[in-house]
Amino acid sequence: MTRKSTTRDTTEQSLRKAMVVTARQLDARGLNRGTSGNIGVRVGRGLLVTPSGVNPMSLKPSSMVLMDTDGQNLGRGVPSSEWRIHRDIFVARADVGAVVHTHSTFAATLCVHRKSIPAFHYMIAVAGGDSIRCAPYALFGTQALSDGVIKALKDRRACLMANHGLVALGSDLSQAVAVAIEVESLCEMYWRALQLGEPHILGKSEMDEVIERFKHYGQHRAL
Ligand SMILES: [Zn+2]
Hints:
- It is a single chain.
- The protein is α+β, with helices and mostly antiparallel strands and 223 residues long.
- It has one domain (3-222): 3-Layer(aba) Sandwich (L-fuculose-1-phosphate Aldolase).
- Helix content is 38%, strand content 14%.
- It has seven helices and seven strands; from the N terminus they run H-E-E-E-H-E-H-E-H-E-E-H-H-H.
- It has a seven-stranded mixed sheet with strand order 3-2-1-4-7-6-5, with helices on both faces.
- The longest helix has 22 residues, at 173-194.
- The relative contact order is 0.14.
- The site of zinc ion (ZN) has 6 residues, from loops.
């Protein structure tokens, strides 16, 4: 092998291309529809964010908006209205390289109840703990919404946003997408389980065991 297959090309241009592919994947999988949702990727000392109001099929690598962590637009285009969430996550979380935000159906169904999702299934640990929290409602695009999301993401890789959708984090785009897909699937399972009454919730020691096991096996192996 002349080159490790795990070698990551993190140049800005390759990240821009990956964001186009990811936006189309999220649309094809039904996690986002039309112009809903957005993606952010850490690049250098700033970030790339998907543009506001552009359909995934019309996106190009050059559509992605380069910003610094002060919120200055360093390039062309209008960034997604939720750029503050992406910026604030990258500032607060050195472990995060990519952020995916969706309005996926089952996450949106549960988040209108403004409740955290408990450990009804061991895979909840994919989000980093024994629950997936729900951030308080605030108007889209506001600093108040971002502040609530940052709190709900403490020690987590995902959270719901009241009456809105979900946010998923990863060290890179593929991991953030995998977390988003898994969380949306968990939301569907929880919604289905609630049709039959209150499900059994795993206890703290049971979830501690899962979280410990995930640390050894790595999150990707669990997904
Ligand atoms: Zn949104």
